[in-house]
Amino acid sequence: MNSAPSRRVAGKVVLITGAGAGIGAACASLFAREGATIAVADQSLAAAQPVVEAVLAEGGQAAAFTCDVANRASAEKLIPEVVARFKRVDVLINCAGVTNRNAPPDWDWEKVWDFVMAVNMKGTFLLSKFAVEQMVRQGGGAIVNLSSIFGLVGRPAGIGNGLDAYLHSKGGVAQLTRDMAVHFAKDHVRVNALCPGFVYTALTKKLTDDPATLKYLEDRHPMGRLGRPEEIARAALFLASDEASYITGACLPVDGGYTAQ
Ligand SMILES: NC(=O)c1ccc[n+]([C@@H]2O[C@H](COP(=O)([O-])OP(=O)(O)OC[C@H]3O[C@@H](n4cnc5c(N)ncnc54)[C@H](O)[C@@H]3O)[C@@H](O)[C@H]2O)c1
User: How many other C-beta atoms are found inside a 10 Å radius of the C-beta of residue 216?
Assistant: First the structure.
């Protein structure tokens, strides 16, 4: 592991939800290389454990935690568990998230809507609420939420049915970001969101595995390609680090130009 003095989150304790896969796992790896201690939280311990082992193998520090972010009791006990292990929580990255595609096919539309809202919107709210209480006690911190291009714009006409909880939840995450940013600025807690375009992860695999759908999605992004998890992680690192010391309440597109058109 590189121990150069330029490491951008050296000494910080970074809690990442949904860190067992995709963007969260990429954040765990990058933040560890930049000097942070990582609390790798996921609903699946089996997913979190290999991410921890990869960090430890590179000489970093990390531990796995199980948490269902949509469950109040589970979310509430995560913060004291991380503090008991690592003394503090300097950064929270809210990566846990689902789409309609994660719901069993036999669920009716209302159950699917509730499920997506519960994980993406309520889960981000619960973790942020409990983490910010800890950060205020500590004297500050930073939260990075995962919104989406679909927290900023609707789907192109002809796609979807106009009733998609994913968009509703990600718009809610953007507003939660602004609401918390304004209120907790006085407590030295910065709250920002990333709005990624389509990124190659398990979340989008059903779409990207289909060549016609992949081509359609590539064409929607002016850069002509989808994003990689590490490209989103690099933006998270910037917003979480002291380099973004005057940035709060921002919803930053990381989308190959998708929302610029
Ligand atoms: N992949 C994309 O194209 C894309 C684009 C924009 C925004 N995002 C957002 O980025 C975040 C990460 O997405 P990803 O693509 O890495 O997804 P992913 O499916 O690869 O990983 C999500 C992780 O979250 C965990 N998780 C799901 N529900 C949970 C719960 N209730 N409690 C705790 N953990 C839970 C899963 O076990 C998994 O490890 C999500 O919020 C997603 O909406 C993704």
Answer: 13
